[in-house]
Amino acid sequence: MSSAIEQFDEKARRLFSHFGRTIVHRGELLRYPLYTRFLHWMVALFFILSLLSGFAIYSPHLFHWLTPLFGGGATTRFLHPWLGLGFSFFFLFQFLNWFVPMTWTRADSKFTHHIKEYVTNQEKLESEETGFFNGGQKIYFWSIAVSALLFLITGILMWFAQAFPRGLIVISFVIHDIAALVMLGGFIIHVYQSTVSEPGTFRSMINGTVTESWAWTHHPAWYRTVTGRDPRVAYEQALKRQVERDRALEAWERTQDAREQTSSPPSSELPKRA
After folding, report:
1. Strand ranges (DSSP E) for the chain?
2. pLDDT in tens, 164-186
3. What distance in Å separates the CA atoms of residue 230 and residue 224, rounded to the nearest whole number?
4. Which of 3, 70, 122, 197 is the most buried (most CB within 10 A)?
């Protein structure tokens, strides 16, 4: 199954490569090709639109200010299921795109034992076994995948409520709302982790690249795979270069201070005010 998915995904990548290319500068690595970035932003767009229209339908009293964004209450109710289908459609392709790298491994199980240190940024470097995605990202992905499936099934039942028993529809409402809230919570954490917690992650979904320092810091095993170099050695070399730069800067500042002192006239030679 995984080989068939990989073949389909490779064909999709090649197809999208005709619409644009990702420029990788010196000191950078290709993280996400154009196809992956397109899917990511389409999923994000339709999720946000589904969420906003869903809030407007769920509680018109609290979120009545959202309905004008979609052309009014009736239009919001009409668009919401279609927006949900759009989200499910693009997420299906994103699921196929990331199915293989999101497979759970022993390294991910180890990651869960140190998830507190990861969330609080106590560790400067991730475990050397951390590959393209870490355990936290995989937990988020699979929770979204399950929630999206429930979101789709219950949404269809609610869309054609007349064709199903009333009790089933009531249960669908509850499950639909819970799935939406789970995805919303995951979405908030995802935005925080990709911006504030791990600077440089957000840009990878814009231009598709990350710096080598980002790679060896957050995904050492992936860095080793794509470069053939030891991430710990690269880290130590970067620290050494930083120390040398700091020393050179301090020496330059001392030289500048000495020049200023020698070029400045003594205070006794300064002209007096008239």
Report:
1. 28-30, 209-211
2. 999 999 999 999 999 999 999 99
3. 6
4. 70
- Give CA–CA dist 86/84, Å, rounded: 5
Tokens 């420029």 correspond to what residue?
23
2-18+30-262, CATH topology level: Fumarate Reductase Cytochrome B subunit (1.20.950)
222-261 burial code (b ≥16 CB/10 A, e <16): bbbeeeeeebeebbeeeeeeeeeeeeeeeeeeeeeeeeee
Rg (CA), the chain: 26
Please choose, from the candidates 101, 146, 142, 138, the residue with its C-alpha nearest in 3D space to the C-alpha of residue 9. Answer: 101
What is the phi/psi pair of residue 266, to 5°?
Answer: -60, 155
The torsion defined by the Cα of 142, 147, 150 and 152, in degrees rounded to 10, comes to -100
Evaluate whether 47 touches 183 at the Cβ level (below 8 Å): yes
User: Whose CA is closest to 35, among 21, 47, 54?
Assistant: 21
Tokens of 147: 């929630």
How far apart, in Å, are the Cα atoms of 69 and each of 58, 73, 155, 163, 177?
16, 10, 21, 31, 21
Strand partners, 209: 30
Mean pLDDT of 101-108: 90
The two structure tokens encoding residue 72: 């009014």
Whether 81 and 155 have beta carbons less than 8 Å apart is answered as: yes
Q: How many residues does the chain have?
A: 274
Residue 122 in tokens: 């106590």
Q: How far is CA 126 from its chain centroid? A: 17
The 10s digit of each residue's pLDDT in 105-125 is 988 888 888 777 776 766 677
